[in-house]
Amino acid sequence: MKPAAHESVDFKRVLHRLIDVLQDVVYFPVRHHSPVCAAMVSSLIQSLRPKAVLIEGPSDYNQHLDELQLEHELPIAIYSYFRRTVHAKKDATDTKADQPIVGSYGSGAYYPFCEYSPEWVAMQAARQVKARIAFIDLPWLQMAHLDQTTHRYADAELRRGQYIETLCRRLQVDDFDELWDRLVESDWTLDVAEFMRRVHALCLHIRFGESAIHRSDLSRESFMREQIEHHRTELKGPILVVTGGFHCSALAAPSIGIALDQTPTESAEPEPDTPSMPEIATVVSGIALTTYSYERLDSLTGYNSGMPNPGFYELAWRFRQGNQAFDHHPLLVQLADQFRKKKQVISTADLIAIETSALGLAALRGRPHVWRSDLVDAVSSALVKDELQYETSSPFLESVYAILRGSRRGRLAEGTRVPPLVQDIGQQMATFEIELKRSSTQLTLDLSEESALRRSQFFHRLKLLGICGFKLVDGTNFFDREDLSYLWESWELRWTPEFESSCIEASRYGTTLVDAASVRMLEQSRGQDLNAADASKLLVEACRAGVETLSEELLVQLDRMIGCESQFALASEALGHLAYLVCYDEALGTKRATPIKQLLAECHTRCLWLLDSLGGTLPDEKKILAGIQKVQEVIQRASTVIREDRNELRQIFLRIQNDREKHPSIRGAAVGILWNLGDIDPEGILQQMIGFQRPQELGDFLAGLFLLAREVAQRHPQVVQTVDRMVMEFSGEGFQHALPALRLAFTYFTPREKHYMLSTLFEALGIKEIKTLPRLQVAPEVAAQAMALEEMIFTEIEQYRLGPDDE
Question: What is the pLDDT of residue 388?
Fold first, then answer.
């Protein structure tokens, strides 16, 4: 609370001005999506017959107000969006905005309307009395950097503060929703005068209880006052202002010489950083209608602080419209049907218990009729029973909330204006002969065909933008790349009610599908938790949508993430994806993409630096070795792309090979790469191998060596012979310790290769006939343990001279 505000402002004087409906400007307080507010504003307009009805809403939509008179099915929403794009200048004198994009920022905001929204009802009533209609709020473009709340008809400012907490405690209600129902929504005796007095008083106390007002609210209120004054000077006669109750006092107080004297908060949200000059900034904005649904409108499932359970309040609205007392029985009928459709056990006795409990709770709470919270609590007490402690997940309560939420979805009337992106999507669907139907359609694409590839890119762009109705269900895995013999995709196409709205809402990313997908990829690349591997996957995803979606800033972002990567495993994973795009991927058209080649070179350099910094312990040896294999693959396949010369590479791997602090597997891998580069001969490999005679080192060294240079063991029998000699010198316990790493080392050979090495070894040992060994009936680990135990026993026998020849 801020006591100084109460002392400096005459509360009664401000309240008297707010409830006075005989003034030239009348301020009507709204809680968004409140049936009572809708009924009262309609009544006031009919009796007052104002010359203008000014409504809290986006003023940049005023030129399109006639669209709201079309035969839409509610709920719908006004969707306002913008995109600020920064282009790099070629030089300081360049004024063209068609240069590469180096920065982009944008967002969209919703102004939803349902049948009982006060703003919607006010417009209908205003048309009946032939009053001027205008929205008077700041355009979203001008307030987005101050307020990130994208659902504009919300009421978060009414819910917070010490005053509301105190009032809830005194009236013994749980939260603001129940408080509002108690004071306003469930009171069937309210008339306009009492409504104005009660709601203005509530909102005025909330306003005075704020120690500081959000900067966006102050900016909006200043703009709205200017708009009100503009219309007041043009018209003779009363003007009705319909805004959120929180704003009414700020709009009215200056007209009677009172300043609220409230300071703004300091926590304004700045726009994201953009590159330094020289640059050219362009802004593209738009505003259009889009469909909405009760599920999105419900504060319990998605809407930002709106009224809960819109289906319930729609029923309340219908009773008010018919001048009838509220009756909860239609909801009980729906509940019973819902329970039985879901095969939830509910009897006549249960329904009687719900009814009895609901009536009792309503009477206890001082209501003449059962209300929303009474019904929810009655179901909880009558049906949930032992599950009460888990009520949020109770199937009975889920059914209750589904009924109270309602399932209504909006539909736009034919001829409604749509943004350019929606037109572009429609044109491309016609070009590709794609028609969404209510039944699911399966479409399989052979990506080796140009027409199928273009369709695939179109689908991936829609998928990036979250367009509903297009689902990738199967196909070639371009991330694991286990089978690239046949490149294909399978898509499921199906019309959904959200298709149109998702297309409209994606318009905040651009006016064409290619531009929008590019901007969306850029937005995803700005994720704070992204690493180099994630960045490379984004690049693969972008390429699946077509190389046209690769913006300069996206590539800069990916390059930055790769340059900052501190883990070799993640950097090498990124290297694998980039190598695929540069060396192999003809299907996606990236083999000739110079920017991706540059990323590959940067990533390879980063991997070499990180590899050189690895120590004696490895968190995940298999991933590290796989990463080193990718480094070698790039050296072999893309030597003209990477910038490291032969001598630099040789020095790096020689340094790793000779560093005794590094893990044996890394040193073995370095030896393998040097052998492939021709910088070490078999004799040198044998000398290196002798340095790893300990059981805990030999297997790891061989794992690295054989992964990178399998041919060494096949072309040079002395390598296998040396391994055999070293292993035979191990004790039983030592062999058991070395076995896991040795098994890993030899898994890199095929069965035919193993047979060849075994034959070569036997020949060197003078064994002419190779007998087939009987199949071992136990696991190798068990056999190794048995052999170690036998050796321990034989050692004990020898130590204590227990042999048959000992005395």
Answer: 47
Tokens of 346: 């509910």
Q: Decide if 631 contacts 575 (C-beta within 8 A).
A: yes
Residue with tokens 């044998």: 686
Structure token digits, residue 139: 């355009």
Tokens of 191: 């008339």
pTM for the complete prediction? 0.79
Write phi, then psi, for 371 (nearest 5 degrees): -120, 180
At 93, is the pLDDT very low, low, confident or very high (cuts 50, 70, 90)? low
What is the CB neighbour count within 10 angstroms for residue 60?
Answer: 19
Contact 317, 186 (CB under 8 A): no
Q: How many residues does the chain have?
A: 807
Residue 360, judged by CB atoms within 10 A of its CB (0-12, 13-18, 19+), counts as middle
Structure tokens at 650: 């040789």
Is there a contact between 150 and 304 (Cβ–Cβ < 8 Å)?
A: yes
**What does the radius of gyration of the chain's CA atoms come to, in whole angstroms?**
37
Helices (DSSP H) in 474-593: which residue ranges? 498-505, 513-525, 532-544, 552-564, 568-583
Measured in degrees and rounded to the nearest 5, phi and psi for residue 85 equal -120, 135
Sheet containing strand 101-113, strands side by side:
101-113, 76-88, 279-291
The arithmetic mean of pLDDT across residues 80-107, rounded, is 67
Give the distance from CA 502 to its chain's centroid: 15
Q: 88: which 2 tokens?
A: 């790099």
Q: How many whole angstroms separate alpha carbon 604 and alpha carbon 562?
A: 10
The position carrying tokens 């802004």 is: 283
Show the tokens assigned to 749: 């050979």
Long-range contacts of 428-432 (CB under 8 A, 24+ apart): 428/458, 428/513, 432/458
The single residue listed with the structure tokens 């309040």 is: 313
- Reading phi first (left if > 0) and then psi (alpha if -120 to 50, else beta), residue 95 is in alpha
The dihedral formed by the CA atoms of 313, 316, 322 and 328, expressed in degrees to the nearest 10: 140
Structure tokens at 293: 């649904």
- The pLDDT-based confidence of 79 (bands split at 50, 70, 90) is very high
CB 83 within 8 A of CB 547: no
Which amino acid is residue 705, in one-letter code? L
| Ramachandran bin of 801, using left for φ above 0, alpha for ψ from -120 to 50, beta for the remaining angles | left
Q: Which pLDDT does position 390 carry in this prediction?
A: 46
Instruction: Using the structure block, give the residue that is written with the tokens 């900016």.
Output: 219
User: Smallest Cα–Cα separation from 28: which of 256, 276, 203, 210?
Assistant: 203
C-alpha distances (whole Å) from 476 to each of 280, 447, 462, 591 are 41, 10, 19, 18
Residue 228 above 60 pLDDT? yes
Average pLDDT value for residue range 680-690:
87
What average pLDDT does range 456-466 have in this prediction?
95
Query: Whole-angstrom Cα distance, residue 85 to residue 106?
Result: 8
Integer Cα distance of 633 and 672 in angstroms: 12
Task: State how far the Cα of 43 lies from the Cα of 375, in Å rounded to an integer.
Answer: 29
Q: For residues 461 and 516, what is the distance between their CA atoms, to the nearest angstrom?
A: 8
CA–CA separation, 700 and 740 (whole Å) = 9
DSSP SS3 for 493 = strand
- Phi and psi torsions of 779, nearest 5°: -65, 145
- pLDDT, residue 575, reads 94
d(CA 467, CA 504) in angstroms, rounded, equals: 9
Rounded-to-integer distance, Cα 133 and Cα 62, Å: 8
Distance CA(450)–CA(432), nearest Å, equals 12
Phi and psi at residue 75, in whole multiples of 5°? -85, 145
Of 536, 534, 614, the C-alpha closest to 576 is: 536
User: In DSSP terms, which residues pair with 282 in a beta bridge?
Assistant: 85
Q: Which of 215-229, 354-368, 385-399, 523-537 has the lowest mean pLDDT?
A: 385-399
Q: What are phi and psi of 702, to 5 degrees?
A: -65, -35
433: left (phi > 0), else alpha (psi -120 to 50), else beta? left
| Residue pointed to by tokens 């905040």 | 508
